[in-house]
Amino acid sequence: MQQYKKVAFYTLGCKLNFSETSTIARLFENAGFAKVDFEETPDILVINTCSVTENADKKCQQLVRRALKINPEVYVAIIGCYAQLKPTEIAQIPGVSLVLGANEKFNIIEHLEEKNDLNAGATVKFEHIKQTNSFVPSHSMGDRTRSFLKVQDGCDYFCTFCTIPLARGKSRNASISETLVEAQKIADSSIREVVLTGVNIGDFGQEGEENFFQLVKALDQLKGIDRFRISSIEPNLLSDEIIDFTLTQSHHFVPHFHIPLQSGSNRLLKAMRRKYLRELYAERVAKIKSLRPDCCIGVDVIVGFPGETDEEFMETIHFLKDIDVSYLHVFTYSERANTTAVKLGDAVPNEVRKQRSKQLHILSDKKKRAFYEQQIGSIRTVLFEAEEDEGIMYGFTENYVKVKVPFDQALVNSMQEVKLLEIDRDGVMKVELIEKTLA
Fold first, then answer.
1. Are 141 and 167 within one domain?
2. Cross-strand pairs, 153
């Protein structure tokens, strides 16, 4: 291991992966490695993979090829969901040296020390997902503005389109007190905003003595963090008490929810093995908007699920038009091995999937613009980010409106009151700074 000095990381997929990559990077740095960018000829490249879509699998293979062009002797380690689902397949990719399943990824440095011969083929450390029971607290660092805090892992739901339970195992978490210890590490830094992340965070506690609502209340008392966001929560787990507390009583949780829908057709929701019908989803949105009309609500939608008819797709379109949501994340269904959905037959042609996806992206743009227009003239608090883009800097209001102002180093990582003025042609809100008084 002595010859390995520089390590780079590349993360595919979700916020949860980013939090885990950051934690693993700190393990390397504590062991004396220098963290470098992907293009800086690293000795070791760690790719944290996703396997939600087929494109994520292909992206992994492309990254290995790119890495070998940068450094033909690079030691490539593959971790993450794809590594758990297809370890043997990954081991056959030319240039891959190490493949670690879900149970082993946080022990990566030990496994690197076991083998240094790049010509002997890939080492695979893998256990059946049923043996994956551990929970490693994680949070991301490096972005001065926000951190992703992992509060839960795994899922017990087994939706018919999803491989996550096979890749990450059963739902599990640390205790509230242990989670607060991890959150305090973030609070002790310069980071101002924390995004709670996991696979199914509303399932925190799994109906034990602790639950997600109790976690939210405990985090709200933590000193040193200005904002908490809930990254994504299932509608059946988004209770009235969570909505009431975060929107009317909390000191730090912002008015922003991301709530997966997947389809506006009840038949498809049942075929997907979702745990709600669209009526419950509409009730959750109405409840939120009754308390905070300015609350931002994001939605996940899948198009092209097996058997989705034109009529059922239009049910989704009309349902989304009728409810007061702010933007959509559109996922085109792709067949995944070992899921129930692939056995349903009646596949939707790829061209139809693309057309439906395009329609939903257009609807998302309209929803987002309508939501932004509703905010014009209001006074909001913006957390400004560090990146400079041709003399412009960006930030987000508490209710997730993206704003822009001329770059000013003094504003980086600061909370500022602004008045929302108009939507720029690139879909970002122009604002007027009220005064530079918030730290």
1. yes
2. 172
Total of domains in the chain: 3
How would you write 310-339 as a 3-class SS string?
HHHHHHHHHHHHHCCCCEEEEEECCCCCCC
Query: Are 77 and 182 found together in one domain?
Result: no
pLDDT at 126: 79
The DSSP annotation for 93-110 comes to STTEEEEE-TTTGGGHHH
Contact 306/334 with Cβ under 8 angstroms?
no
Helix (H, G, I), strand (E, B) or coil at 116: coil
Bridge partners, residue 148, by sequence: 195
- Same domain assignment for residues 109 and 165: no
Q: Which residues contact 426 (CB under 8 A, 6 or more apart)?
A: none
Q: Is residue 415 part of a domain?
A: yes
Compute the distance between CA of residue 82 and CA of residue 90 in angstroms, rounded to an integer: 8
Compute the distance between CA of residue 303 and CA of residue 326 in angstroms, rounded to an integer.
Answer: 18
CATH, residue 119:
3.40.50.12160
Using 70 as the pLDDT threshold, list the residues of the chain that sit under it: 1-4, 52-57, 114-120, 436-439
Q: What range does the domain containing 57 cover?
A: 6-131
Task: Output phi, psi for 379, to 5 deg.
Answer: -100, 125
pLDDT at 179: 97
Residue found under tokens 């609502």:
213
How far apart are alpha carbons 244 and 249 in whole angstroms?
A: 7
Q: How many residues does the chain have?
A: 439
Nearest-angstrom CA–CA distance, 21 and 141: 10
Q: What is the pTM of this model?
A: 0.92
Of 76, 98, 131, which marks where a domain is finished?
131
Residues 127 and 142 in one domain: no
Distance between CA atoms of 44 and 61, rounded to whole angstroms?
A: 16
Q: Which of 254, 273, 307 is the last residue of a domain?
A: 254
Write down the pLDDT at residue 187.
96
Rounded to an integer, what distance in angstroms lies between the CA atom of residue 31 and that of residue 106? 13
CA 72, chain centre distance (Å): 32
Q: Indicate whether 172 and 241 sit together in one domain.
A: yes
- The CATH number assigned to the domain holding 143 equals 3.30.750.210
**pLDDT score recorded for residue 34:** 93
* Contact criterion met (CB below 8 Å) for 173 and 207: no
**Are 395 and 382 contacting, i.e. CB atoms less than 8 angstroms apart?**
yes
- What CATH number does residue 408 fall under? 2.40.50
In a domain? residue 315: no
User: Between vectors from CA 150 to CA 9 and to CA 21, what angle results, nearest 5°?
Assistant: 5
By the 8 A CB rule, do 96 and 63 touch? no
Q: Is residue 76 part of a domain?
A: yes
